[in-house]
Amino acid sequence: MNNKGFTLIELLVVIAIIGILSGIVITALGGAQTKAKDAKIQSEMGQLRSAAELYALSNNNTYGKGGLNGRDTLGCTDSAGMFQDPTLVKYISSILSNVKIGSTYVQCVTRPSGTTNATSWAVVALLPSSSVPTDEKWWCVDSSGYNGKVIYGVSGGPRWFKSGGGRESRKIECNPVTTS
């Protein structure tokens, strides 16, 4: 009798090999998905910066209402945070909500210059690939054109933003990661 086919052992070996290979592929794809989420947040934040700059070009290089009584405004809500002008809000609210969906933490700040109109701003978000909020996996965009990583600063708390200029020309911007 000439049996053609596979034995049970041969089938089990093939199934085991397929299982091992699929486990390796799934593990490798997990890192790719996290990197894709990071890239999406970085892209969305770049779009937010572009929308804000287009608005500023049409509005005397200001970003609309951005501060309460001349103080920094923290928080990313459309009504109580940065970019309160209704014209700008309709352009950036969907972008900002996409960033909030992708990141567990988003912080915004605007810096007015003696008026209710903000003259500078910055937005920072924790990237999904970060397992520890104090590492350097924070992304920041600002009105000066910066789009990149920022430092958290373990001692003394977060140091995402830095300010410069005199009292009349206060400016807020991202505090970039410097490599030594």
TrEMBL record:
Its main location: membrane. The chain crosses the membrane at residues 6-32. The keyword Nucleus does not apply. One of its GO terms (biological process) is protein secretion by the type II secretion system. Keywords: Membrane, Methylation, Transmembrane, Transmembrane helix. Pfam families: N_methyl (PF07963). InterPro entries: Bac_GSPG_pilin, N_methyl_site, Pilin-like. The keyword Transmembrane applies. GO terms for cellular component: membrane; type II protein secretion system complex. It is a single-pass membrane protein. It is found in: Membrane. NCBIfam families: IV_pilin_GFxxxE. This is Type II secretion system protein GspG C-terminal domain-containing protein.
